[in-house]
Amino acid sequence: MADVTLAGLRDDETWIGAQERITLSQPTTVFVLDATQNGKMLPAGNYLAEVSYHKRWGADKNPAAREVPDLNANQVIKLGGSGETASHARNTAALQRWVMGEMDYGRRWSDGDLRAKLGNFERYESPNAVNSVIYYFPDADLSLFVDPRRGKVFTFKLGRVS
Question: Tell me, what DSSP letter sits at residue 7?
Answer without folding.
Answer: T
